[in-house]
Amino acid sequence: MNIKTLILIIINSLIALVIALLSFSSYQQFSNVLNDRILLQLNSIKTLKQNQIEHLLKSEWERFEASELYSQNIDTTLLKLPDSIKNRNGIYDFTAYHVAKKTTIGFISNSKRGRMIKVLDYNKIKQILLERTGMGDSGESYLVGADFRMRSQSRFYPNKIPYTITVKTKGVTNAFKGINGRGVFEDYRGIEVYSVYSLIVVGNLKMVILSEIDVDEVTLPLKELKQRLLGLTLAIFLLAVMLSLFLTRFITNPIKNMQKSLRIMAQGDYNQTNEFIKNSTEIKEMFDALANLKASLQGAVKFSDDIGKMNLHSDFKPKSSNDLLGKSLLAMRDKLIEFRNNEENTRIQSKRMLVNGLEDERRRLSRELHDGVGPYLTSLKHYIENRVKNELKKAEMKKIVDDTISEIRLMSNALMPASIDDFGIGVTLTNFIESLKKSTTVTIEYEDLTQQENSNITNHQAINLFRITQELINNSLKHADATNIRITLSEFDEFISLFYFDDGIGFDITTVKLGLGIINIKERVEICNGTITINAAPGNTTFEIELPIEL
Prior knowledge:
The chain crosses the membrane at residues 6-27, 229-251. With 551 residues, the protein is an alpha+beta fold.
């Protein structure tokens, strides 16, 4: 793009933006002032009418109570009042009980002299509401009952009975909630209006009074202002274009020399002293050269910082085949990744060998206890049964031997359950938990969802899952004060899932000093290439462990 054209675009864009912002600000300010004035005026009209209606109702009620003529001025064939209303004194909205649903407000008084019922002359309220001074061509004030039906004649639907018009607008809803306010929203016709509203409460009578005027009528001056602003904006913009054309002639000559000079400097020659021909050139190449140099250096610096922080997965691409700095950084990154992977594999392999050696030793000790000490104790039991004559001593000695045999079995099973090799981890955990339930009051629920046949869980994974579960249960029983424990072991096509829950006191992962138990659990998950998620909230401590299926 030619520099002259670019300057023209920039200058005129800025001018257009400033003009647009000023026009919008003026328009918005005028609009806000107009809105406030309209709503303030409507609020004054509404308040006046509300005060007039409340004064009318109260004065009519006082006149009614002071009357000595006890009779009914209602037509009982048109107004069917229930006894629940007749028996209570006060001002009521009888509209719903009128046969023709004509708006009816009445008074009821019960005393020793009898019952007196009077209907207020609706024309008195109508006269107040129809006074439309200051409300323009589309303004109106109206009443809405507690059943969200209109109680005053709509000026837009003069032939409709008010009760047949449902008014459940934002203003009516807010007013019945005790919120008096103002705003702009759709009225009962679905037309956007400025509206103010409040609740009238006199005796047992509750109605909402609203004063409204159509938005279209109010915003007519705004539309005229918008047209004038558009015309003024266009005129100023045309003038700005003419001025910018004149100014660009004084700007382009110095910039063309700067462009050629920067191009030579980008090639590494900082000592050039050539005189440049003054003609019309483009500025794009100058900015491209500077931008590329800056981007290249910034990318190299950022990538170097990432490597220094061992963030070896940061993305970086050399700018070209001649970018020696970028290639050197990539080679260094690849070497560090290789070194870290080798170190990580060596560390995990060492842990795995250590754990496997420990489990092998436990398996050997378990077998020696079961196959070595076990038969001796069984022989001792037979000897006591056959050789000891004193029945009391025989019973005591047999009990001691039986307890010892049970303890040896428990120790052997804890070291390495024999069922883990024969029946798998699912059955082993079931047996372990069932035996544990006999010695604790904590409720332990276990769900085995592993495949009973053709399971893909390896012996290595089974042993680690068993040790992890042992450690979790031990922590819950000793430290968590838990009353309920739930365990689920699931086997899927691609991974094995162990879910553990207790309702104990939990712990703060960020501040608690993790004991050897948690460390051992994490290390066993790591050597199985798995993942662990811990939630240690009080009453909801969970461990979610996933191990990949090793095919």
